[in-house]
Amino acid sequence: MRKRYGIFLCILFMLSLLLAGCKEDEDTQSIKPSEEGIAVSNTGLELGLTSENYPSIDGSTSTLPLVQEIYKTMVVSTGEGEEWLNLPQTPSKTVPSYKKLIAGEVDMIFVPYASQDILKEAETQKVKLEFFPVSTEALIFITSKDNTAQNITEEQVRSIYIDYAIDNWKEIGGPDKELIPLCRNADSGSQSQLDNLILKGQPMNERVKENFVELTMDGLLEQVAFYHNVSEKKCFGLGYTLYHYLQNVDGMTGIGEKLRILNYEGIPATSETIKDGTYPLVSNYYAVVRKDLPKDHAARKIIEWLKTDDGGKCIRRSGLYPVT
Less Cβ around it within 10 Å: N or C end of the chain? Predict the structure, then answer.
C-alpha cells in the first residue's frame, strides 16, 4: 500500500514539474503566431532584418493589428524571438503619427490618407511624403440596430455635419425621432476620411463638434449603439467609422450586433462591394514614409514584401484585404 502511495506521489510530483515548466514557457512567450499560424520561414532573414535595423513603425488605431502581424511574422522568421523587440500595443493614432513621421521620429506609418491639414504641414516643414497603398478600407455610417432607417446620401451627410440642418430621422426615411450626429476628434483616422471623402475642405458645424465629440473609436461605437437608452430624449445617434475596423472589433466585443450599417447612396457596405469598388466610400490604408528615407532602408523592404503573396497573407491575417 505504501509503495503504491509512494509511486502515486512520485507521479504527481513529476506532473507538477511538467505543468510548471509549461506555465513558465507560457509566461515567457509573450509573442506567438496568430491562430491561422505563421510558418517559421526565412522572411526576416531574407529582408535583412535584425534588432538593430528593424524600423520604428506607428499608425492609426485601426491599423494596429497589421503592424502587430508584420512584427510577429518578421520576429518569428528571424529566430530572434522576443529577446529584441516588444510587440507594439499602443498606436499614436492617425494625425499624431503623421506628425511624428514629418518630424523624423518614426520610419514608417500605416494610416488612412492624409488630411489637407497634414499635407499642408508637411509642405511647410519641406517634407515630402510617399504613399504606398496596402489594403482596402471604407468609411461607413452607423446607427442603432433599433433604428429603422436604412440609407443615407452624401447630400444628407453634408447637410447634417456641415449645416446641422437635419435633426429628425424621418427626414431621411427613418422614424420620427431626433437625429443626434456624433463625431470623432480631429486626429482620428475616421475623421480624416470624413474630411477627405465627404466634407472636402469644408469645416464641420461647431454645434456638432462642441456637443457630440467622442475621443475614441470604441467610444463612438458604444455611443451610437446605446445613446437612445441613456438619453431622456426620443432619439437615435448617427456616427461613422471604418468598415474593417468595425469587423475586427465586433469579433472581440460583439458590438456589431447593436449597430446598423446604413446603405450609402443605396449601396450596402459589404466585403464584396468594398473589394469590387462599387461601394462609393472605398479608400485605402497606406504605408507612408518620408521621401528622403534611404532606398535600402528596412521599412522600404517591408513595403515591397507586403506586395508579395506572403505579404498579402499577412495583411489578411490582420483582418484587412490587400490592394489588388
Answer: N
